Amino acid sequence: MRYLIASDLHGALRPLEDILRFYDAGHFDQLLLLGDLLYYGPRNSVPDDMDAQKVAQLLNARAQDIIAVRGNCDAEVDQMMLHFDIMATYAVVVDNGRRYFLTHGHHYNALALPHGNYDAIVHGHTHLQGFTQTSSGTLVVNPGSPTFPKGGNPPTFATLCDGTFSIHHLSGDIISQWTL
């Protein structure tokens, strides 16, 4: 399976459109969304291209391809706009014998690991893209944010194909990779 992973869209239309073009061009199988989908959040500025209704419409058109988890800015009203579940704290994806723990990052992250054995913990929340490895060898992946990147990072998303995670600039260019 080929996965595209995005977090922290915060209702911005243009970044989502870019991500969906990449998704279609790359013939991905599933879109893994790590929360904070529609609302910009009280600590962020309002995105120039904020359009939560249009973001919901574009995502709803692909509901059958989406696995999503709840971010700290996602609420029941967001769920009412979406045709796929977003209220779970985490999801587990098993692919080719590898176990991936998907979460937003405000409950589970590199400093607060979930119980169980996983090949990778995949979370957003910090808007800081990158890879780290725990002392036990578990990979921690953060796709960053296409809307509000932090720490001087560019707008990003990630992909997972055959055990290789790639972090992409919003333009599609690969910034970094990690193979399990």
Would you write up a description of this structure?
The protein has a single domain (2-179), classed as Metallo-dependent phosphatases (Purple Acid Phosphatase, chain A, domain 2). The radius of gyration is 15 Å and the shape is globular. The strands form two sheets. The protein has a six-stranded mixed beta sheet, with no helix packed on it. A five-stranded mixed beta sheet has the order 4-5-6-8-7, with no helix packed on it. The protein is α/β, with parallel strands linked by helices. The relative contact order is 0.19. The chain has three helices and eleven strands. The longest helix is centred in the N-terminal third of the chain and has 13 residues, at 13-25.
Low-confidence stretches: none
Largest sheet: 6 strands, mixed
Query: Using only CA atoms, what is the Rg?
Result: 15 Å
Give the ordered list of helices and strands: EHEHEHEEEEEEEE
Class by alpha and beta content: alpha/beta
Question: Key terms for this structure?
Answer:
globular, alpha/beta, Purple Acid Phosphatase, chain A, domain 2, 180 residues, five-stranded mixed β-sheet, 3 helices, six-stranded mixed β-sheet
Q: In summary, what is this structure?
A:
With 180 residues, the chain is of the alpha/beta class. Helix content is 16%, strand content 30%. The chain is globular and about 40 Å long.
